[in-house]
Request: fold
Amino acid sequence: MNEPIAKKIYYSIGEVCDLTGLKPHVLRYWETQFDVLNPTKNRAGNRVFRSKEIEVILLVKHLLYEEKYTIEGANKRLIEMRKAGELAEERQDVLEPEFLSGMKAELASLKNVLTPGMPIEAD
Reply:
């Protein structure tokens, strides 16, 4: 299975924020609300996330922001998906559009930087 997230074993919370478009405090809050989100901590005590956890974060984001679930409703839906064995499939379905839109924005930004004479836009 090829995963669109770059191959790294662990990602810092800052890297996860960049990948998901979420703030660190949101990730920390979700960690307390969703049992499926349980990042490990390194020796320094910092949260480290694996690719699967990032996919779950994107699924939670999709359920809350696009499907308009409440936190309780999203939690119930995640539990249902896990019991039905659908969690991995749902993570991939949500990840593709998220990844592609992020990649498109990165490419547009790169094009602006590389095109001579183009004004550089601030993010």
About this structure: The two ends are 33 Å apart (CA to CA). The beta strands are 11-12, 40-41, 47-49. Residues 11-114 form a domain with the Multidrug-efflux Transporter Regulator; Chain: A; Domain 2 fold (CATH 1.10.1660.10). The chain has one domain: 11-114.
